[in-house]
Amino acid sequence: MGSAGRADILANYHRVLQQIEDAAASVGRNPQTIKLVVVTKGHPVQSVHLALEAGIRVFGENYAEEGVAKKLACIGTPGIEWHMIGHVQSRKAGQVCQHFDWVHSLDSLKLAQRLDRFAAEYGRRIPVLLECNVSGEDSKFGWAAWDETRWEALLAAISQIASLPGLELRGLMTMAPFYDDPEPARPHFQRLRCLRDFFRQNLPEAHWDELSMGMSGDFTVAIQEGATMVRIGSAILGPRPKA
Ligand SMILES: *Cc1c(COP(=O)(O)O)cnc(C)c1O
Question: Tens of pLDDT along the chain (243 residues)?
């Protein structure tokens, strides 16, 4: 088992688009308001080329170098977006700032301040999402937000992030725990949406219009709970090849 071939990627992509449309319709949402980010981490550059042939233009990567290498391999194709969705180490902040269009995984004030400095250097304003840990799993990065009593304590740092000129704070991101079935992920997505409403109320200076939630196993439920971005890898590109 490994990365899917040309015909499978095309078929998988169209099946996922249909599932996004159906999930949106099930709650009366417009599917155009949901962005599909295709996660290429762990797949070879060849998978990115096949995805481009299938019409995919929005990609997510977890590691800066891997993403930059793939970006440079696609330099001839216009209109591609690269989303950083993995934990960013401080020393990678410059590379992320230079090459990525979005950062979903902003998980500390320190990283925000570093990204802001590089944004000034590169003359950019980078749209960012705060990665939030709403499940309490200790394997997860993100702002500690698994119960409401912790939310107030986040406001001071988030308010500082909202005021950084090089960043454009747009919303929240989360990863639900892994389950065999999408339904148990629903309360985690609901909690992220409530947290977004809390920030919107308390820090109206930021936009709070984006919710990045939902992966291959749970994106239909995430869309029902308000996802505006879903991050899907294996359902389109196949299982990640073993390193
Ligand atoms: C790997 C990854 C995904 C995609 O996972 P799949 O289960 O392959 O769809 C989405 N988001 C993040 C943060 C990831 O690390």
Answer: 688 999 999 999 999 999 999 999 999 999 999 999 999 999 999 999 999 999 999 999 999 999 999 999 999 999 999 999 999 999 999 999 999 999 999 999 999 999 999 999 999 999 999 999 999 998 889 999 999 999 999 999 999 999 999 999 999 999 999 999 999 999 999 999 999 999 999 999 999 999 999 999 999 999 999 999 999 999 999 999 976
Domains in the chain, ordered, with CATH? 6-237 (3.20.20.10)
Distance 39 CA to ligand 1 centre (A): 6
Residue closest to 188 by CA, chosen among 137, 227, 134: 134
Q: Measured in angstroms, how far is the CA atom of residue 229 from the centroid of ligand 1?
A: 12
Ligand 1 centre distance from Cα of residue 213 (Å): 10
Closest atom of ligand 1 to CA, residue 215: 9
- 179 CA to centre of ligand 1 in angstroms: 13
Please list every protein residue whose CB sits less than 6 Å from any atom of ligand 1. 39, 41, 62, 85-86, 175, 215-217, 231-235
| The three-state (H, E, C) secondary structure of 12-75, written as one string | HHHHHHHHHHHHHHHCCCCHHHCEEEEECCCCCHHHHHHHHHHCCCEEEECCHHHHHHHHHHCC
Q: Is the pTM of this model over 0.85?
A: yes
